[in-house]
Design brief:
CATH architecture: Sandwich
CATH class: Mainly Beta
Distance between the termini: 21 Å
Number of domains: 1
CATH superfamily: Maltose phosphorylase, domain 3
Order of helices and strands: EEEEEEE
CATH topology: Maltose phosphorylase, domain 3
Strand content: over 45%
Radius of gyration: 12 Å
Structural class: mainly beta
Shape: globular
């Protein structure tokens, strides 16, 4: 992979979840919104991306990831 794969599968009773993950020295703050299914829509620092792979950020960075499923 060229990044951090984001493919959440939340139970229907959870609507919003926020997790923090450290990967390769960067901190990823990931907010997942459960909209009822379908392909995940992912944005990184406010910019939509086409896939569910978040590019690796330099060590020491903080990255905001939003996922709607």
């Amino acid at each position: 992979f060229d990044g951090l794969r984001v493919q959440p599968s939340l139970p229907s009773h959870l609507t919003d979840v926020t997790v923090t993950r450290t990967c390769r020295g960067a901190e990823y703050r990931i907010t997942i919104t459960n909209t009822g299914g379908g392909e995940p829509r992912v944005s990184v620092d406010g910019q939509p991306i086409d896939e569910s792979i978040v590019p690796y950020a330099p060590a020491g960075s903080t990255v905001t990831v939003q996922v709607a499923t």
